[in-house]
Amino acid sequence: MKRILPLLLILSLFAIATGVQGAQMECTDEIGCVEIAPDDPIVIGYMLTLSGGTSFLGEDSLGGIEIAVSDRDSMLLDHDIELIGEDSLCSAEGGQTAAQKLAANDQLLGVVGTNCSSSATAALPIISTAGMVMISPSNTAPSLTNDDTASGGVWQPGYYRTAHNDLFQGAIAAEFAFNELGLTKLATIHDGSPYAEGLQAVMADTFTELGGEVVFQGAINVGDTDMSAILTEVAAAGPEVIYFPVFEPEGDFIAAQTADTPGLEDAVLMGADGLLSDSFPEATGEAAVGMYLSGPSVTGDEYTAFLDKWAEEIGGVPPSGYHAHAYDATNILLDAIESVAEVGEDGTIVVGRQALRDALTATADYAGLTGSLTCNATGDCATGEALAIFQITEAELEGNWPPPVVWSPGQDM
Amino acid sequence: MRLVLNQRTIDEFSWVDFIIGVLRVVIIALIIIGSWNTLASGRFTADQWISLVISGLAQGSIYALIALGYTLVYGILLMINFAHGEVFMSGAFTAVFLAEAFDRSGFLNGSPLLAVPLLILFAALVSMSVAILLERIAYRPLRNAPRLVPLITAIGASFFLQYTFRGLYGSGFKSYPTVDALRGSFTVGSVTIPISQMVVFAAALVLMLGLYWLVERTKLGKAMRAVSENKEVSALMGIDIDRIIVFTFAIGGALAGAAGVINGLYRPQGVNFFMGFVPGIKAFTAAVLGGIGNIPGAMLGGLFLGVIEAIGPNLVLAGLGIPGANQLKDVIAFTMLVLVLIFRPQGILGERLAEKKA
C-alpha cells in the first residue's frame, strides 16, 4: 500500500496534466476532428484511374498533385505531407473500392479525385459519410454538384471540383454553334459515359431552346475503332454540325472517319474538353483542321512554369488536360487545411472536418492555374468564365498548342 | 425397364429441342422484322449499304488475321491463348515508333511500297518474339497440366504484357502517321471506296493465302497438321513436337504483328498498351464463329464478324426501334456467337472436335 500510494499520486498528476492539455485542444467540430501527433504526417489521398485504358488521365492528375506537394517541399505546418492513393479506375466499381479503402484511414483529411464522373458517383457517399472532403480535377457531370435528388442530383457534403460544370460547357457550345456559326441542324454522338451523355444532352437541349433542330442523337462504345456504321447513320440524318464530346481515342476515330464518310464532308465538327489535348490534332491529322473544341483556356506564365516543373520532376509533357486542375485542387485543399488547423504548443495539429469543408466552400477568388476559383455551396469551384471555344488550325498539326481561341461567352466574334 | 428409360430420354430431348426451336424461330423473326422495317423505311441508300459492307470487310480482315493465331494454337494444343490480343498490341505499339521515324525522314511517303512492307515485317518480328517467349516461359512448363491451368496463365500473361508495355512506352496514345498513298478514295459505279480499305483487305488476303500455302503445301505445314491430329504418333514418326509448337506460336504471332501495322494504316489512332484487348476478344469470337481449330474457318469468321458488326446495328436493331443502335455493336457480335453456337456448335466450318479429339 505504501508503494502504491505514490504511484497513484504520480498517475493522477499525469492525468490532470494531460487533461488540461486535452481541454486546450478539445474538438468542437460537429462531425469530428483529425488529431495529428507532433511527429506524424498530414495525410491526404488521391483516387485516380491508374490502370486500364484511361490511365493516362490518372497519370496526368497525379503529376499535378505531386508537383503541388513538392512546391511546398512536402511540408505543411511543420509536418510532412504524406500522399496515399488508390486506383479508382474509370468505373463505379473502381470508385467504390478505392473510396472504401481510403475511408478506412481515419487520419486522412481529404482526397483529390476522381478522374471519371462514374467513379465519383459511387465513391462520393462513402467519402462524405466518413467526414472527408473530395476534390475532383476532372469530373464535369452536372449531377455531381446538383443537390436536388429529384432531378438526378447526387451531390453530398464534402464534394468539390476544380473542373468546370458541363452545364456551362454544353450551353456555350450550343450558343456558339447556333448564334455565332448560324448552324441549325445538330447531330450528337456520346460514348455512354455520364460525362459525354450529360454534355450532349445539355448541348441538345440548349440548341433546341435557341431554335435549332436536333436531327440525330446516338452513341458508340468506349473501345470502338470503326465508326463507319454510326457515321453512315449520321450522314443519313443530314446534320450541319456534329457534336461528339467524347475522349481519345474514340474522338480521333470519329473525326478522322468523318472525312471519309460520303455526305459529311462539309459538316462542322465540334468536341469538348475531353479532346482538348495536343495529342488529338496530332493523331487525327488533316481531318481535325477546322474543328471546334470547348474547354478551359489554361495559359499564362505560371502555367508555363508549371510545365517546366513537370519536365524536370516527372519528365516529358502531361499526357492529358487536367493536370492544372489537379494542381489547383491539391493547393486549395492544402490551403484550407492550413487555415483551419489548430496547432498545439507541442506541434500537435487538430483539424475539424466540418471546419475544413466550410473553409473549402468559402474559397473565393483563388488565383489558380485554371483561372479564378470561387466555390459555391454545392462544390462547383470553377466559375466557367474561363471556358472558351478553340479552333484547330494547320499549326496545331505541326505541334503548336493550345489552338487559338475563337470565341468566349459574352463576346461577339 | 429399358423401354421406360428410353421413353424418358426421348421426352427430355424433345423439351430441349422445343426450347431451342422456339428460340430459333423468335430470333429469325426478330432479324426479319428488324431488317424489313429498316429497308422499308429507306433510311439508307443502296450505296450506303455497300460502303458499310466494304468497311466491314476491311475491319473483318483484321479480325481474321488475329483469329488465325487463336485457331492455329488451338488446333495444336487445344488451348485458348488469351494473351494473343497482347501479342497483336506488342507489334502494333512497337512499330509505331519505327513508323514515326520513317515519317520524319520522309521515307514513308517517299517510297511507301518499300516502307510499309518493312513496317509490317518489323511488327511481325516483334510479335513473333513475344509469342515465342510466351510459349517458352508461360505455356511450355504447363504443357501437361489440366487444361484450366494454361487458360488462367494466359490471362495472367495478358496482364503482364499489357503493363510491361505500359512501363516501356507509357500510358498515352500514339498514332500511326498517315500514308499519303493510302488517302483518298476511288469510285466504282456510284459507290465510293476509300483506298485504305481496299489495301487492308488485299494485304490481309495475301497473308492469309500465304498461310494457307504454308500449312497445305510445305513439309512444315504437313508436320503441323500431323501434330494437330495426334501428338504421340507424330512424335513416334520423328516429328519434333516442341519445334512444331514453337513454329505455330511464331506464325500466329507474326500474323498478329502484321495485323497490328495493317490496322494502324487503316485506323491510325488509338495505339496504346490496352489496344489489344477488344480486338483480341473479337478475334476469339471470330475464331469460334468460323470453327476453332479450322484455318479457313477463322478467315471466314473474321470477315463475317466484321460485316455483321458494320451492318447489323443499322439493319436489325434500328429496325426494331432500339435507340442508340450503334452502341450495341458488340451485342450484335456476341449474339451472333450465341446463335452460331445454338445452330452449329462446331462453328461455320468447324469439325466435330468433341468426337475426333477428346
Summarize this structure briefly.
The complex is a heterodimer of chains A (413) and B (358). Chain A is of the alpha/beta class. Chain A has helices spanning 4-24, 55-71, 92-103, 117-129, 166-180, 194-210, 228-237, 250-258, 279-284, 301-313, 323-340, 353-361, 394-397, and strands at residues 33-36, 42-48, 75-76, 79-87, 108-113, 133-136, 159-161, 185-190, 213-219, 241-243, 268-271, 292-296, 342-343, 349-352, 366-368, 371-373, 387-391, 405-407.
What does this structure look like?
The complex is a heterodimer of chains A (413) and B (358). By secondary structure, chain A is α/β, with parallel strands linked by helices. Chain A folds into two domains: 34-148 and 159-163 and 322-373, 3-Layer(aba) Sandwich (Rossmann fold), CATH 3.40.50; 167-296 and 387-407, Rossmann fold (3-Layer(aba) Sandwich), CATH 3.40.50.2300. Chain A has helices at residues 4-24, 55-71, 92-103, 117-129, 166-180, 194-210, 228-237, 250-258, 279-284, 301-313, 323-340, 353-361, 394-397; strands spanning 33-36, 42-48, 75-76, 79-87, 108-113, 133-136, 159-161, 185-190, 213-219, 241-243, 268-271, 292-296, 342-343, 349-352, 366-368, 371-373, 387-391, 405-407. In chain A, the strands form four sheets. Chain A has a seven-stranded mixed β-sheet, with helices on both faces. The longest helix of chain A has 21 residues, at 4-24. Chain A is elongated. Chain B has a single domain, classed as ABC transporter involved in vitamin B12 uptake, BtuC (Orthogonal Bundle). Chain B contains 14 helices and two strands. Chain B has a two-stranded antiparallel ribbon. Residues 354-358 of chain B have low confidence and may be disordered. The interface between A and B is large, with 40 and 41 residues.
Number of helices of chain A: 13
Helix content of chain B: over 70%
Low-confidence stretches of chain A: 19-23
The biggest chain-chain interface is:
A-B, 40 and 41 residues
Shape of chain B: globular
- Work out the helix count of chain B: 14
Oligomerization category of the chains in this entry: heterodimer
Radius of gyration of chain A: 24 Å
Helix content of chain A: 25-40%
Looking at the structure, the CATH topology of chain B is ABC transporter involved in vitamin B12 uptake, BtuC
Largest sheet of chain B, if any?
A: 2 strands, antiparallel
Q: What's the CATH superfamily of the largest domain in chain A, by name?
A: Response regulator
Largest sheet of chain A: 7 strands, mixed
Average per-residue pLDDT of chain B, rounded, comes to: 87
| Residues in β-strands, percent of chain B | under 5%
The sequence of SSEs of chain B as H and E is: HHHHHHEEHHHHHHHH
Strand-pairing-aware structural class of chain A: alpha/beta
How do the strands of the widest beta sheet of chain B line up side by side? Answer: 1-2
Task: Please report which band the strand proportion of chain A falls in: under 5%, 5-15%, 15-25%, 25-35%, 35-45% or over 45%.
Answer: 15-25%
Determine and state the CATH class of chain B. Mainly Alpha
